[in-house]
Amino acid sequence: MPVQRLNHAVLYVRDVARSVDFYREALGFRVVMEMPGAAFLQAAGSSNDHDLGLFQLGSQAGPTTAGRTSVGLYHLAWEVDTLDELQRIATRLGELGALVGASDHSTTKALYAKDPDGLEFEVSWLLPATLIDDAVRAGRSSIRPLDLAKDIERYGGRTRGGVGVSVPV
């Protein structure tokens, strides 16, 4: 059987407690297990054992250079089921000073943020496959600024996104 999906991610952080607080506040994650220097968190809507593992390196740890001077992971992306939820998270990330960008990829509406260690992540809503037509597919060739109010007006704030649904090519 082929790979089905990403089950969890593990991050090295300077301070586990600080990172746990951030992911709780920003995305509503909850701690499912802790041990000295490590924590395992689960997203509110997840059935995974855990979605995020955090391992503490200490305050002496240098910043990540991935994507700037070396190869490495650019970011993780989590999906939400409605545009209303994406708007709620955009507001919360803004309040935390963590929001660094927002893009419209046509089939995906995305927020970009950084955690306290500068590790970037994405929170996105996927356009339901039933709403993807040739014009939407063509729109994937460019990235535009995200206009959540316009998208909520067009698709509805409570329209369930394509969570777990593959997007036709």
Order of helices and strands: EHEEEEHEEEHEH
Q: How much helix is in the residues?
A: 10-25%
Q: Which descriptor suits the 3D outline?
A: globular
- Order of the strands making up the biggest sheet: 5-8-7-6-9
- Measured between the Cα atoms of the first and last residue, the distance is 22 Å
Helix vs. strand class: alpha+beta
Number of helices: 4
Task: Say how many strands there are.
Answer: 9
Unreliable runs: 164-169
Residues in β-strands, percent: 25-35%
- Provide mean pLDDT, rounded: 92
Rg, Å, rounded: 17 Å
Question: What can you see in these coordinates?
Answer:
- The chain has a five-stranded mixed sheet with strand order 5-8-7-6-9, with helices on one face.
- The protein is globular and about 50 Å long.
- With 169 residues, the chain is α+β, with helices and mostly antiparallel strands.
- The chain is 23% helix and 28% strand.
- The chain is built from four helices and nine strands.
- The longest helix is centred in the middle third of the chain and has 13 residues, at 83-95.
- It has helices spanning 16-27, 83-95, 134-139, 148-155; strands spanning 9-13, 30-35, 38-42, 52-56, 76-79, 99-104, 108-114, 120-126, 144-145.
- A hairpin with a 2-residue loop joins strand 2 (30-35) and strand 3 (38-42).
